[in-house]
Amino acid sequence: MMKSLSLRNNLVGYTFISPFVIGFLIFTLIPAAASLYFSFTDYDLLSAPNWIGLENYTSMFTSDDRYMQSLKVTMLYVFLGVPLRLIFALFVAMILNTTSKAVGLYRTVYYLPSIIGGSVAVSIMWRNLFGDQGVINVMLNSIGIDSVRWFGDPNAALFMLVTLSVWQFGSSMLIFLAGLKNIPTELYEASGVDGAGFFTKFFRITLPMLTPIILFNLIMQLISAFMTFVPAYIISKGEGGPLDGTLLYSLYLFRQAFVFFDMGYASAMAWVMLIIVGVLTAAVFATSKLWVHYETEGGR
Amino acid sequence: MILKKFKWPIYHIFVGLLAIVMVYPVIWLLMSSFKPSNLIFTTSSSLIPDPWIWSNYVTGWIGSSGQSFMSFITNSLKIVIFSTIGAVLSSAFIAFGFARLQFKGRAIWFAVMMVTLMLPHDVVLVPQYIMFSKLGWIGTISPIVVPQYFGVPFFIFLMVQFIRTIPREMDEAATIDGVGKFGLFLRIILPLIIPALATASIFSFYWRWEDLMGPLLYLNKPSSYTVSLGLKMFLDSESVSNWGAMFAMSIVSLIPVLGVFFLFQRYIVEGISTSGLK
Amino acid sequence: MKKQAKKVVLALMASALMLATACGSNAGTNSETGTNAGTNSGGGDKPITLRMAWWGSEARHEYTKKVIDLYKTKNPNVTIEVEYANYDDYWKKIAPQAAANELPDIMQIDTGYYAQYAGKGQLADLTPYFGKEIDVTNISENALNGGKLGDGVFGMNLGVNSLGFQYDPATLAKAGIDSIPENWSWDDYLSIAAKAKENGIYIDGGMRAEVFFGYYLRTVGKKLYNDAGNGLGYEDDQLFVDFFGKLADLVKSGAAPTPDTLAQIKGVEDDMTVKGTQVGVWQWSNQFVALQQAVNRPMEIAPMLNPGAKEGLYLKPSMFFSISKNSKAKEEAAKFINFFVNDAEANKLILGERGVPVSSVIKEELKPLLSPEQVQVFDYVAWSEANSSPMDPVDPIGAIEVFASLKSLTEQLNYGQISAEDAAKKFRSEAENVLKKNK
């Protein structure tokens, strides 16, 4: 009896996730296995790969300064950009989560930057804003600060990238908004904080109820920040300058793979990245037991 | 009460000002599309075009080397709509399995799904290309669209998180009424995660719309090129580029995405809170 | 609640409907081209389909398609399917095709990637076709050998380029200089730069490191790469110090723009020469027309710097057409390349857009049809032919990575972050590290 029940459960469970399992086996597993194999070879896309053992992995950490630079830049970008972006997104989602008539317009306007995305137009626009005569410098000058050479200083250039990522916070905002809307209003009534002030409501109901969504956004933003490629590519004309200041990991990986034809090395880089991001994500998941509140688990 | 009266203007001033900052670059883009190509950069610090011209829209719409911009839009729509339907529906289906069902290996498969997000796409791109070429899919939209029907991890995870915020009492009530798992998914859960479905639809639409790599690799015939490819046709690093047309068509290409946003954001706004959860 | 679900389903269905109509209209155009392919009633030759790929501007796409149409009217049995993109995207598109053995029959290759693709056996040797499918009677040995790698020629040279200083005489006058002296030397150049700087005008936008360092080495009888392509072709790091030290001094003194100023330039239209704040640009002759159009004032081309300009200057293929090794219709592909290079009618459409034609006959035929700025380019290339030395062997595999290293080091040098001596040493070790793989 018990056995047939669990068999049934497994059957139903796998039926539901079968599209993913099948898709994974066909479209992801084989190519991923191939890239793992390439990472131990000198594969150059144009001729057959030769096995070279761990050479790609060792040279990454021993003889490639630029690799270490890209790792450093990426870490900075992630740990600066992700919190800023999430806080800003949550903040905006909160202020837009009202019933004002103008809110539809605001919502669109705030989302607009995120849908012009990584196009060439954005790159032109962004380079213009931060240019020597751009609006940013004009504004800095007007409050008595000297112009910043955004394209000449590696740190300033990285900061420019971070600003771009914060500016395009729309996707996180939208998810927060949807999350906020998913909190049943009855909960506010039921827990008797209806008459209470904003902050009480926020910390007693809104924030705990939103934690699954915060977890989601945190993890996805973390992963996607590590993978960030387009902004760095378009702002530095694909080279990661100035002085490798915007040489994000993915950009360097791309250059190794498709500009220098060193797919073996690029594959090795990818697997190192996978381990780094995987460990970080697992760590976030591990802590989530402490702070994420799931309605399903009945904790209230 | 008095406080409230004061609050609203302050709210609008604040939100409005921030909105202007956010949208300034977009306005710059819009205004540049009305400038002659050769003046876009030399007059980049002034917003108002002088002279104001419409011809960028005309030349842009005519398109590039025999392909009208309309054909780029149609091609993109075809890919985007097929992809979005597949991505959203399959992801919801899979998400229900992960969020609500108990089965052996669930945690492992969930972890596998998360890991697939962490492998940079550039290194699987070549093996994937070889595979699709063996399947004879090169030159068709299949390599871009078909995988979407097997679930998109981002959306699956998103919907899992949403389903987990739904109280389980809902399920129990339905199960007592004799509804099976499929019924539970279709009739109870799906309507409750409409905000997540709408969010996923908006994202999926936009991501496919702006995707450059897929169309670049898999579409060969210029008559099947998409908007993302079409926009880049206006530019060439070796010769004079048609910046004006590129800006104008960038603006035009925003319209479908904005339209979808308008269409679907209502479902996010309305949410489920108003629809009477017991 | 249910109502809402219905609405979503309705919205999805509506979009599916939209899609169906979109597909319908598309299918219509597809079948149209399909019948076109079907009605090749030709002279009994069996139908052949070739794939052809190139990068470039809208104008290039347009006239290339016209050339293909023209070819089709003369060879109704041949259908050519085209694929094109802009330069950056093109290489992304081609690389996976190479990995999958799916390269187009005819593809455009540039000198930077040439060794990579030819050296790794992706391209077919064209020498068997020379004198047969490809008529080479009017093409000089020198031009043909532009694509020589080892014993083979894996790319048909489509046009030749020459290096020079393309400048705006009006800005030069504004900078307080009457004219550029004939046979100008490095000293002339440096003093002109200094004078222009006094008047607040940049002399140029810098010299692209790999191109002009290569030139400089040639003027002193050296090469950037050794003949085997597995190491550098010069031993004395002082040459590096001399060349890049001079350029870095120009940047430091403000006579040439800093790298961050250059990084903000978005395209030709945005070039400082166009804005009149820079005298000119050091670059290849095929870029002259675009620059001239953007500047929209009369421009001139000045020759390279002395001493050793004649030894240093060389004519370089602007780009190649290659046939992929796995092409099943190599002869047909070669015939088309021949048409592209030797047919007068076709070249009246091309009008030298891919570089000054290699065929002497075609060059003459085109002369009356050219725009004034194209005439300038043709004339400068003709002058260069008489005042240059043969080109070095094509850049070896890995050259792109060497360039990247050189570019990064010169950037550091221009920012004053590294001394010229250290940069020279570092370049040697990085470059040899890459090149030693070419055993």
Automatic annotation (TrEMBL), chain A:
Residues 71-284 form the ABC transmembrane type-1 domain. PROSITE patterns: ABC_TM1. InterPro entries: ABC_transporter_permease, MetI-like, MetI-like_sf. It is a multi-pass membrane protein. Pfam families: BPD_transp_1. It is found in: Cell membrane. One of its GO terms (cellular component) is plasma membrane. The chain crosses the membrane at residues 12-40, 75-96, 108-126, 156-180, 213-235, 271-292. Its main location: membrane. Keywords: Cell membrane, Membrane, Sugar transport, Transmembrane, Transmembrane helix, Transport. One of its GO terms (biological process) is transmembrane transport. PANTHER family: ABC TRANSPORTER PERMEASE PROTEIN, ABC TRANSPORTER PERMEASE PROTEIN YESP-RELATED. Belongs to the binding-protein-dependent transport system permease family. This is Multiple sugar transport system permease protein. The lineage of its organism: Bacteria, Bacillati, Bacillota, Bacilli, Bacillales.
UniProtKB/TrEMBL annotation, chain B:
This is Multiple sugar transport system permease protein. InterPro entries: MetI-like, MetI-like_sf. It is a multi-pass membrane protein. The lineage of its organism: Bacteria, Bacillati, Bacillota, Bacilli, Bacillales. Keywords: Cell membrane, Membrane, Sugar transport, Transmembrane, Transmembrane helix, Transport. Belongs to the binding-protein-dependent transport system permease family. Residues 73-264 form the ABC transmembrane type-1 domain. Pfam families: BPD_transp_1. It is found in: Cell membrane. GO terms for cellular component: plasma membrane. PANTHER family: ABC TRANSPORTER PERMEASE PROTEIN MG189-RELATED-RELATED, ABC TRANSPORTER PERMEASE PROTEIN YESQ-RELATED. GO terms for biological process: transmembrane transport. The chain crosses the membrane at residues 12-31, 79-101, 108-130, 136-163, 184-207, 243-264. It comes from Paenibacillus algorifonticola.
TrEMBL record, chain C:
InterPro entries: Bact_solute-bd_prot1, SBP. Residues 1-27 form the signal peptide. The keyword Signal applies. This is Multiple sugar transport system substrate-binding protein. It comes from Paenibacillus algorifonticola. Keywords: Signal, Sugar transport, Transport. The keyword Acetylation does not apply. The lineage of its organism: Bacteria, Bacillati, Bacillota, Bacilli, Bacillales. PANTHER family: ABC TRANSPORTER SUBSTRATE-BINDING PROTEIN YESO-RELATED, ARABINOSE-BINDING PROTEIN-RELATED.
